[in-house]
Amino acid sequence: MTTLTIGACLSLSGKHARFGTQARLGLETWHASNSALDLVIQDDQSDPAVLRASLRELSDRCDLLLGPYSTQLMRKAGDVAAELGRLIWNHGGSGDDVEAAHPGHVVSVLTPTSRYTEPFLRHLAGTEALPVRIVCGKGSFGRQVADGAEVIARSLGIDTVRLGPGDDLPQTAGGAWALLCAGAFEEDIETIKRARSLPTPPQTVCAVAAGVREFGQALNDPHGIYGVGQWFPGNADPAEVGIGEPDFLTAYQDRAGTLPDYPAVQAVAAAIIATHCATTTGDTGRDALWSAAASLNTTTLFGAFKIDPHTGTQLGHQPALIRWGSDGPAVA
Protein backbone atom coordinates (compact mmCIF):
# COMPACT_ATOMS: atom_id res chain seq x y z
CA MET A 1 0.00 0.00 0.00
CA THR A 2 1.24 3.52 -0.80
CA THR A 3 1.51 6.21 1.87
CA LEU A 4 -1.80 6.72 3.65
CA THR A 5 -3.21 10.21 3.89
CA ILE A 6 -5.44 10.92 6.88
CA GLY A 7 -7.74 13.93 6.83
CA ALA A 8 -9.47 15.49 9.82
CA CYS A 9 -11.89 18.39 10.24
CA LEU A 10 -11.36 19.95 13.66
CA SER A 11 -12.59 23.13 15.34
CA LEU A 12 -9.46 25.26 15.61
CA SER A 13 -11.64 28.36 15.99
CA GLY A 14 -15.19 29.04 17.15
CA LYS A 15 -17.01 27.67 20.18
CA HIS A 16 -15.44 24.18 20.06
CA ALA A 17 -11.87 25.41 19.62
CA ARG A 18 -10.91 24.49 23.20
CA PHE A 19 -11.35 20.82 22.36
CA GLY A 20 -10.57 20.82 18.65
CA THR A 21 -7.16 22.31 19.37
CA GLN A 22 -6.41 19.50 21.81
CA ALA A 23 -7.44 16.93 19.20
CA ARG A 24 -5.10 18.57 16.69
CA LEU A 25 -2.19 18.50 19.14
CA GLY A 26 -2.89 14.86 19.87
CA LEU A 27 -2.92 13.92 16.19
CA GLU A 28 0.23 15.93 15.47
CA THR A 29 2.01 14.25 18.39
CA TRP A 30 0.99 10.81 17.14
CA HIS A 31 1.88 11.67 13.54
CA ALA A 32 5.39 12.76 14.53
CA SER A 33 6.29 9.11 15.14
CA ASN A 34 4.45 7.87 12.03
CA SER A 35 6.39 9.45 9.19
CA ALA A 36 5.00 6.95 6.68
CA LEU A 37 1.60 8.65 7.02
CA ASP A 38 0.43 12.03 5.79
CA LEU A 39 -1.86 14.11 8.04
CA VAL A 40 -4.09 16.90 6.75
CA ILE A 41 -6.13 18.99 9.22
CA GLN A 42 -8.65 21.66 8.29
CA ASP A 43 -10.43 24.13 10.56
CA ASP A 44 -14.20 23.63 10.47
CA GLN A 45 -14.59 26.84 12.50
CA SER A 46 -17.22 25.09 14.68
CA ASP A 47 -19.62 25.73 11.78
CA PRO A 48 -21.68 22.92 10.17
CA ALA A 49 -21.63 24.60 6.75
CA VAL A 50 -17.86 25.03 6.81
CA LEU A 51 -17.51 21.44 8.01
CA ARG A 52 -19.56 20.13 5.08
CA ALA A 53 -17.42 21.95 2.51
CA SER A 54 -14.15 21.02 4.22
CA LEU A 55 -15.06 17.36 4.56
CA ARG A 56 -15.97 17.13 0.89
CA GLU A 57 -12.60 18.64 -0.01
CA LEU A 58 -10.73 16.25 2.29
CA SER A 59 -12.62 13.31 0.82
CA ASP A 60 -11.05 14.03 -2.57
CA ARG A 61 -7.54 14.16 -1.08
CA CYS A 62 -7.46 11.62 1.75
CA ASP A 63 -7.61 7.85 2.16
CA LEU A 64 -9.04 7.98 5.68
CA LEU A 65 -11.37 10.55 7.21
CA LEU A 66 -11.59 11.51 10.88
CA GLY A 67 -14.65 13.33 12.14
CA PRO A 68 -14.88 16.64 14.04
CA TYR A 69 -15.30 17.34 17.75
CA SER A 70 -18.89 17.84 19.02
CA THR A 71 -22.04 15.81 18.64
CA GLN A 72 -23.67 18.51 16.51
CA LEU A 73 -20.82 18.66 14.01
CA MET A 74 -20.40 14.89 13.91
CA ARG A 75 -24.08 14.53 13.08
CA LYS A 76 -23.45 16.60 9.95
CA ALA A 77 -20.22 14.72 9.20
CA GLY A 78 -22.07 11.40 9.25
CA ASP A 79 -24.57 12.76 6.73
CA VAL A 80 -21.75 13.87 4.43
CA ALA A 81 -19.93 10.52 4.70
CA ALA A 82 -23.11 8.68 3.72
CA GLU A 83 -23.70 11.03 0.79
CA LEU A 84 -20.15 10.48 -0.47
CA GLY A 85 -20.14 6.74 0.11
CA ARG A 86 -17.21 7.09 2.53
CA LEU A 87 -16.50 5.80 6.04
CA ILE A 88 -15.70 8.33 8.76
CA TRP A 89 -14.03 7.55 12.08
CA ASN A 90 -15.93 9.25 14.90
CA HIS A 91 -13.87 10.45 17.86
CA GLY A 92 -15.82 13.57 18.81
CA GLY A 93 -19.57 12.94 18.79
CA SER A 94 -20.86 10.57 21.45
CA GLY A 95 -24.59 11.10 20.90
CA ASP A 96 -26.42 7.78 20.63
CA ASP A 97 -28.24 8.98 17.52
CA VAL A 98 -24.96 10.07 15.92
CA GLU A 99 -23.19 6.76 16.52
CA ALA A 100 -26.03 4.70 15.04
CA ALA A 101 -27.25 7.09 12.32
CA HIS A 102 -25.32 5.71 9.33
CA PRO A 103 -24.42 2.00 9.62
CA GLY A 104 -21.55 1.19 7.32
CA HIS A 105 -20.41 4.81 7.19
CA VAL A 106 -19.57 5.77 10.82
CA VAL A 107 -17.32 3.88 13.24
CA SER A 108 -17.22 5.32 16.77
CA VAL A 109 -14.55 4.95 19.44
CA LEU A 110 -16.58 6.78 22.13
CA THR A 111 -18.85 5.49 24.86
CA PRO A 112 -22.38 6.53 23.79
CA THR A 113 -23.83 9.54 25.58
CA SER A 114 -26.57 7.56 27.31
CA ARG A 115 -23.92 5.62 29.29
CA TYR A 116 -21.77 8.66 30.13
CA THR A 117 -22.83 9.04 33.77
CA GLU A 118 -22.97 5.36 34.69
CA PRO A 119 -19.70 5.26 36.69
CA PHE A 120 -20.74 8.23 38.84
CA LEU A 121 -24.24 6.92 39.52
CA ARG A 122 -22.93 3.47 40.42
CA HIS A 123 -20.44 5.10 42.77
CA LEU A 124 -23.23 7.17 44.33
CA ALA A 125 -25.49 4.15 44.75
CA GLY A 126 -22.71 2.30 46.54
CA THR A 127 -21.92 5.12 48.96
CA GLU A 128 -24.30 7.99 49.73
CA ALA A 129 -27.34 7.07 47.60
CA LEU A 130 -28.42 10.73 47.58
CA PRO A 131 -31.30 12.01 45.46
CA VAL A 132 -29.92 13.63 42.32
CA ARG A 133 -30.87 16.81 40.52
CA ILE A 134 -29.90 16.46 36.87
CA VAL A 135 -29.36 19.75 35.02
CA CYS A 136 -28.96 19.36 31.26
CA GLY A 137 -27.67 21.89 28.76
CA LYS A 138 -29.29 23.41 25.72
CA GLY A 139 -28.08 20.95 23.10
CA SER A 140 -28.93 17.37 22.25
CA PHE A 141 -25.75 16.16 23.98
CA GLY A 142 -26.99 17.36 27.37
CA ARG A 143 -30.47 15.96 26.79
CA GLN A 144 -29.10 12.55 25.88
CA VAL A 145 -26.76 12.49 28.89
CA ALA A 146 -29.72 13.38 31.12
CA ASP A 147 -31.98 10.80 29.48
CA GLY A 148 -29.41 8.08 30.07
CA ALA A 149 -28.74 9.25 33.63
CA GLU A 150 -32.43 9.02 34.50
CA VAL A 151 -32.65 5.46 33.19
CA ILE A 152 -29.48 4.34 34.99
CA ALA A 153 -30.45 6.08 38.25
CA ARG A 154 -33.87 4.45 38.19
CA SER A 155 -32.29 1.01 37.74
CA LEU A 156 -30.09 1.72 40.79
CA GLY A 157 -32.96 2.98 42.97
CA ILE A 158 -31.76 6.60 42.96
CA ASP A 159 -34.41 9.34 43.00
CA THR A 160 -33.96 12.07 40.38
CA VAL A 161 -35.35 15.50 39.52
CA ARG A 162 -34.56 16.84 36.08
CA LEU A 163 -34.09 20.52 35.28
CA GLY A 164 -33.58 22.18 31.94
CA PRO A 165 -31.05 24.85 30.97
CA GLY A 166 -31.69 28.04 32.90
CA ASP A 167 -34.28 26.51 35.23
CA ASP A 168 -34.11 27.81 38.79
CA LEU A 169 -32.58 25.49 41.32
CA PRO A 170 -34.88 25.09 44.34
CA GLN A 171 -33.74 27.20 47.27
CA THR A 172 -34.19 24.34 49.73
CA ALA A 173 -33.72 20.66 49.08
CA GLY A 174 -35.23 19.08 52.16
CA GLY A 175 -31.98 17.33 53.03
CA ALA A 176 -28.70 16.30 51.45
CA TRP A 177 -28.69 16.02 47.67
CA ALA A 178 -26.37 15.54 44.71
CA LEU A 179 -26.02 17.64 41.57
CA LEU A 180 -25.28 16.16 38.15
CA CYS A 181 -24.48 18.68 35.40
CA ALA A 182 -24.76 17.60 31.76
CA GLY A 183 -24.23 20.60 29.55
CA ALA A 184 -21.62 22.51 27.61
CA PHE A 185 -18.48 23.49 29.53
CA GLU A 186 -19.68 27.02 30.29
CA GLU A 187 -23.17 25.81 31.24
CA ASP A 188 -21.80 23.35 33.79
CA ILE A 189 -19.58 26.00 35.37
CA GLU A 190 -22.53 28.40 35.73
CA THR A 191 -24.80 25.70 37.17
CA ILE A 192 -22.25 24.73 39.82
CA LYS A 193 -21.75 28.36 40.81
CA ARG A 194 -25.51 28.84 41.21
CA ALA A 195 -25.86 25.62 43.20
CA ARG A 196 -23.06 26.57 45.58
CA SER A 197 -24.84 29.83 46.42
CA LEU A 198 -28.02 28.08 47.60
CA PRO A 199 -28.97 27.97 51.29
CA THR A 200 -28.67 24.20 51.01
CA PRO A 201 -25.90 23.53 48.46
CA PRO A 202 -25.37 20.04 47.02
CA GLN A 203 -23.40 17.62 49.15
CA THR A 204 -21.97 15.93 46.06
CA VAL A 205 -21.37 17.38 42.59
CA CYS A 206 -20.56 15.67 39.31
CA ALA A 207 -20.16 17.49 35.99
CA VAL A 208 -19.19 16.54 32.48
CA ALA A 209 -17.08 19.71 32.39
CA ALA A 210 -15.04 18.46 35.35
CA GLY A 211 -13.58 15.71 33.17
CA VAL A 212 -11.01 18.10 31.66
CA ARG A 213 -8.13 19.89 33.41
CA GLU A 214 -9.28 23.35 32.34
CA PHE A 215 -12.16 22.93 34.79
CA GLY A 216 -9.74 23.67 37.63
CA GLN A 217 -8.93 27.05 36.07
CA ALA A 218 -12.55 27.97 35.35
CA LEU A 219 -13.99 27.23 38.81
CA ASN A 220 -12.67 28.38 42.14
CA ASP A 221 -12.04 25.49 44.53
CA PRO A 222 -13.03 22.41 42.48
CA HIS A 223 -11.98 20.20 45.39
CA GLY A 224 -14.28 17.20 45.83
CA ILE A 225 -16.14 17.57 42.53
CA TYR A 226 -16.50 14.47 40.37
CA GLY A 227 -16.03 14.50 36.64
CA VAL A 228 -16.90 12.02 33.93
CA GLY A 229 -14.98 11.78 30.71
CA GLN A 230 -14.11 9.39 27.94
CA TRP A 231 -10.56 8.91 29.26
CA PHE A 232 -8.19 9.77 32.09
CA PRO A 233 -4.52 8.78 32.53
CA GLY A 234 -4.05 5.39 34.14
CA ASN A 235 -7.65 4.32 33.62
CA ALA A 236 -7.14 2.12 30.54
CA ASP A 237 -5.68 -1.34 30.00
CA PRO A 238 -2.38 -1.59 28.09
CA ALA A 239 -2.71 -0.88 24.38
CA GLU A 240 -2.74 -3.88 22.05
CA VAL A 241 -2.75 -1.64 18.96
CA GLY A 242 -0.75 1.55 18.40
CA ILE A 243 1.29 3.71 20.74
CA GLY A 244 1.00 3.00 24.45
CA GLU A 245 -0.34 5.55 26.92
CA PRO A 246 2.99 6.27 28.73
CA ASP A 247 4.86 6.97 25.50
CA PHE A 248 2.08 9.17 24.15
CA LEU A 249 1.78 11.16 27.37
CA THR A 250 5.50 11.86 27.35
CA ALA A 251 5.49 12.93 23.71
CA TYR A 252 2.40 15.11 24.12
CA GLN A 253 3.77 16.84 27.20
CA ASP A 254 7.05 17.53 25.40
CA ARG A 255 5.10 19.15 22.55
CA ALA A 256 2.33 20.96 24.46
CA GLY A 257 3.88 21.55 27.87
CA THR A 258 0.96 19.87 29.61
CA LEU A 259 -0.78 16.51 29.81
CA PRO A 260 -3.65 15.87 27.38
CA ASP A 261 -7.34 15.61 28.16
CA TYR A 262 -9.61 13.06 26.54
CA PRO A 263 -10.29 15.06 23.31
CA ALA A 264 -6.65 14.54 22.28
CA VAL A 265 -6.50 10.87 23.19
CA GLN A 266 -9.79 9.89 21.59
CA ALA A 267 -8.72 11.52 18.30
CA VAL A 268 -5.50 9.52 18.36
CA ALA A 269 -7.41 6.33 19.13
CA ALA A 270 -9.60 6.86 16.06
CA ALA A 271 -6.51 7.42 13.89
CA ILE A 272 -4.86 4.29 15.30
CA ILE A 273 -7.89 2.09 14.62
CA ALA A 274 -8.39 3.58 11.15
CA THR A 275 -4.79 3.03 10.06
CA HIS A 276 -4.73 -0.44 11.63
CA CYS A 277 -7.78 -1.47 9.62
CA ALA A 278 -6.37 0.01 6.42
CA THR A 279 -2.94 -1.58 6.75
CA THR A 280 -4.16 -5.03 7.81
CA THR A 281 -6.61 -5.23 4.91
CA GLY A 282 -4.48 -3.35 2.38
CA ASP A 283 -7.64 -1.55 1.33
CA THR A 284 -9.13 1.88 2.10
CA GLY A 285 -12.52 1.20 0.56
CA ARG A 286 -15.55 1.67 2.78
CA ASP A 287 -16.62 -1.98 2.78
CA ALA A 288 -13.18 -3.30 3.65
CA LEU A 289 -12.67 -0.78 6.44
CA TRP A 290 -16.10 -1.44 7.91
CA SER A 291 -15.58 -5.20 7.88
CA ALA A 292 -12.18 -4.87 9.54
CA ALA A 293 -13.48 -2.52 12.25
CA ALA A 294 -16.52 -4.73 12.95
CA SER A 295 -14.29 -7.74 13.57
CA LEU A 296 -11.98 -5.97 16.05
CA ASN A 297 -12.03 -6.58 19.80
CA THR A 298 -8.92 -4.82 21.06
CA THR A 299 -7.50 -1.96 23.11
CA THR A 300 -5.72 1.29 22.32
CA LEU A 301 -4.24 3.92 24.64
CA PHE A 302 -7.84 5.17 24.93
CA GLY A 303 -9.21 1.88 26.25
CA ALA A 304 -11.31 -0.95 24.84
CA PHE A 305 -12.59 -0.95 21.25
CA LYS A 306 -15.46 -3.09 20.03
CA ILE A 307 -18.35 -1.89 17.90
CA ASP A 308 -21.81 -3.19 17.18
CA PRO A 309 -21.22 -4.80 13.75
CA HIS A 310 -24.64 -3.67 12.56
CA THR A 311 -24.63 -0.01 13.64
CA GLY A 312 -21.03 1.05 14.37
CA THR A 313 -21.97 2.06 17.93
CA GLN A 314 -19.18 1.62 20.47
CA LEU A 315 -19.78 -1.24 22.91
CA GLY A 316 -16.42 -1.92 24.53
CA HIS A 317 -15.20 1.44 25.78
CA GLN A 318 -16.06 2.62 29.30
CA PRO A 319 -15.96 6.23 30.57
CA ALA A 320 -13.68 7.32 33.40
CA LEU A 321 -14.78 8.74 36.76
CA ILE A 322 -12.43 11.26 38.36
CA ARG A 323 -12.50 13.40 41.50
CA TRP A 324 -10.77 16.71 42.04
CA GLY A 325 -8.39 16.83 44.98
CA SER A 326 -5.78 19.23 46.32
CA ASP A 327 -3.34 18.12 43.60
CA GLY A 328 -5.87 18.24 40.77
CA PRO A 329 -8.00 15.49 39.24
CA ALA A 330 -7.37 11.78 39.90
CA VAL A 331 -9.16 8.53 39.11
CA ALA A 332 -11.97 8.09 41.65
How does this model look, in words?
The chain has 332 residues and is an alpha/beta fold. It folds into two domains: 5-111 and 234-318, Rossmann fold, CATH 3.40.50.2300; 115-229, Response regulator (Rossmann fold, 3-Layer(aba) Sandwich), CATH 3.40.50. 40% of the residues lie in helices and 18% in strands. The protein has eleven helices and 14 strands. It has helices at 17-32, 48-61, 71-84, 96-100, 118-126, 140-155, 185-196, 215-218, 245-256, 262-281, 286-295, and strands spanning 5-10, 38-43, 64-66, 88-90, 106-108, 132-136, 160-163, 178-182, 204-207, 226-229, 298-300, 303-305, 320-325, 328-331. Helix 6 (140-155) links the parallel strand 6 and strand 7. Helix 1 (17-32) crosses helix 10 (262-281) and helix 5 (118-126) packs parallel to helix 6 (140-155). The chain is globular and about 65 Å long. The chain starts with a strand and ends with a strand.
Strand order of the largest sheet: 7-6-8-9-10-13-14
3D shape: globular
- The first-to-last residue Cα distance is 44 Å
Low-pLDDT parts are none
Count of runs of 4 or more consecutive helical residues: 11
Largest sheet: 7 strands, mixed
Structural class: alpha/beta
CATH class placement of the largest domain: Alpha Beta
- How many strand elements? 14
Rg measurement, Å: 20 Å
* Multimeric organization: single chain
Which bin fits the share of residues in helices? 25-40%
Could you give me the name of the CATH homologous superfamily of the largest domain? Answer: Response regulator
Order of helices and strands: EHEHEHEHEHEHEEHEHEHHHEEEE
**CATH structural architecture of the largest domain:** 3-Layer(aba) Sandwich
